[in-house]
Design a protein that fits this description.
The complex is a heterodimer of chains A (263) and B (408).
Chain A: H1 2-9, H2 11-27, H3 34-54, H4 67-95, H5 97-102, H6 109-135, H7 147-171, H8 174-188, H9 201-207, H10 212-225, H11 235-262
Helix pairs in contact in A: 2-6, 3-4, 4-6, 4-7, 4-8, 4-10, 7-10, 7-11
Chain B: E1 4-16, H1 19-27, E2 35-48, E3 53-57, H2 64-72, E4 79-84, E5 88-91, H3 104-114, H4 119-133, H5 148-159, E6 166-169, H6 178-193, E7 197-201, H7 205-211, E8 214-219, E9 222-227, H8 229-246, E10 261-262, E11 267-275, E12 284-286, E13 290-299, E14 303-313, E15 319-324, E16 332-335, E17 340-348, E18 354-363, E19 372-385
Parallel strand pairs in B: 3-7, 3-8, 5-6, 6-7, 12-19
Antiparallel strand pairs in B: 1-2, 1-4, 8-9, 10-19, 11-13, 13-17, 14-15, 14-16, 14-18, 18-19
The chains are: A mainly alpha (263), B alpha/beta (408).
Chain lengths: 263, 408
Amino acid sequence: MELIKSLWNYRGFILGSVKRDFQFKYLNSLLGIGWMVLQPLSMITIYTIIFSQIMQAKFPGSANPLSYSIYLCAGILTWGLFSEITSRAMNTFIENANLLKKINFPRVCLPAIIVLNACLNFGIIFSLFTLFLLISGNFPGLVYISVFPLLLILILLAIGLGITLGVVNIFFRDVSQFYSIFLQFWFWLTPIVYLKSILPAGVQRWIGLNPLEPLIAGFHASLVQQEWPNWSSLIYPAILAIILGAVGMSLFRKHAGDMMDEL
Amino acid sequence: MSILSVINLGKAYKQYSNRWARLAEWFIPVSKPRHHLHWVLEGINFSLEPGEALGIVGINGAGKSTLLKMIAGTVQPTTGQIQVRGRLAALLELGMGFHPDFSGRQNALMAAQLLGYSQDEIAQLMPEIEAFAEIGEYIDQPVRVYSSGMQMRLAFSVATAIRPDILVIDEALSVGDAYFQHKSFDRIRQFQNQGSTLLIVSHDKAAIQSICSRAILINSGRLTYEGKPEDVMNYYNALLADKVNHEIEFSQTNAGETQIISGSGEASIVAVRLLDQQGDLIEVFDVGQSAVLQVEVRANKDLPELVLGYAIKDRLGQAIFGTNTHQLKQVLCNVKKDSTFIFDFCFVANLGEGSYSISIALHSDNTHISNNYEWRELAALFSVVNMKHLAFLGSSWIPPTLEIKKII
């Protein structure tokens, strides 16, 4: 409760920082906000060409030529949100060491800024994606709303992991090196670019341990297959999100004092 | 009712024998602690009444800044507690934390938000912040084009936009040009008059003695002395002198100033001391106070003639006054090897406020150009503060008597 209160008291700073970060990212470039769209768009184009054209990967049970692109978008955009929150939250305390040493303010503001910022970026690009779905006649209808609970779990999971990594990273700087490598493996161990069905049966069983797998599968279900996600499969990531959140907060509390000594 | 109480405050940093020890301590449950605590501050107790001004004195590394950071809340104490009643503002390392690519206005806004000012307050304060900083059109330019002085001006203006109940000032204040230094000091004094409590760390003895009503001395992490600023300063000087005599003889130089020693070494300066009339070591004089410059000299060879000269120089290195034993007609002749002398120059410090240095030369004739045995710049440093007299200008004290006659 105290945490929420301090966040509320510093809402001016948090919102101001989000605004400034956003401006800064696109302020000095000519294309501005265009870059935000171009980056995932280029990635999606590359994957679409490589996998669907060159490697002749067929999207099973669909005659729609756009299916694979939509499948990629649904996965890559949401994965992007997750990886942005976790990797930026991991470094936020170190990056803002100067500020933390100088002014006494609730430290939890820093991850809050990261989360809001990532959500803002995601909101813009996901709206464009939704617009594309509407125009191309692929909008799933009512099923679309299942995206929101999925996003909620994804963001909670990202915050929990991000704060945990953020605190640990102050004391063991190896963590950020390790995590950037780990993130690459994690991306390819999640069926984002490929379909889960192409994996051997033995691997399919193990991939269930990946908490992002049911979440991404949920986005795929809603946006590609246009059906409700398998809700029961989301219990695992939801519980993990709560546990990681609790771990992150307790680490944060326990080491708040030592944190400043290490920065 | 005290506005700030510091109770049994201590700070220790964890030190690990190697990088893996911390990992082991984190992840091996119920293991014994693998670090030892390095105490930088221990058992600090003091409290401040509203409107008081407390100076904190101590050599570099004594723990003053750590103490301020704990009071400002950016560093958590290991033991003890700090009770603050009212709003506290801290001027620590001014200007750091500005984002170079944002304009001065955006940075000021962000700093104000960080200090917890509300949106309405900020809107109200911005014109005043801009006016006080006096950086003109630069306010809308990115901070990366600012000079350090301009950053400092802006940071100070933001931090002091609202009068705090307690103002914590680290020595960083002395940056900026003379004009802004005066302007910021005026603001601090104004706050003090309006009832703000001040907590100041400074090496500037004059500042401590003129602003503070009380001072504490921190030495190797402990509160060693508490009392009137003059007493604390004297104690501090004694401590410094002690250090000079026993550990680093003849390197009484301030940061950045190098002592220049040259000469043939046929005679050498063993010790230089500034004493008050009671014979105690002293570093701060009141205007018009009597003082003794004591120089201990040893002849390393048989010398036909030995002359000792000294010059008092101001902050800029201009000689204010200088003389030697030749001019004073007390030249030592036929000095034997290994004989040692003590020269006591008694003088009255009819000097204006400021800091001064003394250069000393040992030679054979009227000037040190012929047979320079040893010549030492910055052999001693002292400062003069005005404690008893009316305010005046300049580096010398020439008190007039005034008579006004009405003639028409």
